[in-house]
Amino acid sequence: ERIKQLYLAPGPRRTLAAEDLDWGSTIRHRKLSPDMNWVTKRIACGGIVDTDEEMAMLAEQGVTHILNMSELDDTSLAQKHGIESLWNYTDDDFEPKSPEFFDRGVRFAKRVLADKRNKLFVHCAMGINRGPMMTLAVLCSMGWKLKAAQRRIKKFRTCACFPQVYVNSIRRYLQGVRWVERRGTGRPTGTGTTTRCSGWSR
């Protein structure tokens, strides 16, 4: 029997048989709402948003900025709805991520969240690995303990996963940040040293 997928948010995906969709043919193959969950009052985590309708829903929920790790550059689509998006793509390859990758995302998030009127949506394609990974880095950069931040994300984004290789990458990034804060200005690198950079935000 043919099976179709309905995408619902928040919560897990629900699989329905084809006949269950007869009540509304217009919803076939459509997401009913953006795949997102609020982790804090101003930070949400989720999956890809790739339609005008979904982007409009984000704007209606107060999202002002997007931090995007997916393959799709949503900068232009977001801009149409008054939302600023940073495309910070990385492959979901279960390989270590560079401190520079986290640095771009964290600096963007800190700039956004410095204005209490702003709300940030962090996402990848499915909202399972890369989106939660960057959300974890952002929370930890704001003072959350790593384990507590993982529990917080998992509580509200139940499908979130934290592959150990990604968690280790975040630990290395945070160690570099602490080194910079102790020693002076610079940017963490994958070797544990820093490169001098006047734009590094402590």
Topology:
Layout: E1 3-6, E2 14-17, E3 36-38, E4 43-46, H1 52-60, E5 65-68, H2 75-79, E6 84-87, H3 99-113, E7 120-123, H4 130-141, H5 146-156, H6 164-183, E8 187-188, E9 194-195
Parallel strand pairs: 4-7, 5-6, 5-7
Antiparallel strand pairs: 1-2, 3-4, 8-9
Walk me through this protein's architecture.
- It is built from 6 helices and 9 strands, in the order ββββαβαβαβαααββ.
- It has helices spanning 52-60, 75-79, 99-113, 130-141, 146-156, 164-183, and strands spanning 3-6, 14-17, 36-38, 43-46, 65-68, 84-87, 120-123, 187-188, 194-195.
- Strands 3-4-7-5-6 form a 5-stranded mixed beta sheet. Strands 1-2 form a two-stranded antiparallel sheet. Strands 8-9 form a two-stranded antiparallel sheet.
- Helix 3 (99-113) packs across helix 6, helix 4 (130-141) crosses helix 5 and helix 4 runs parallel beside helix 6 (164-183).
Distance between the termini: 57 Å
Could you give the order of strands across the largest sheet? Answer: 3-4-7-5-6
| Rg for CA atoms | 18 Å
Number of helices: 6
What are the secondary-structure elements, in order, as H or E? EEEEHEHEHEHHHEE
Structural class by helix and strand composition: alpha/beta
Largest sheet: 5 strands, mixed
Overall shape: it is globular
What is the percent of helical residues?
A: 25-40%
Mean pLDDT reading: 83
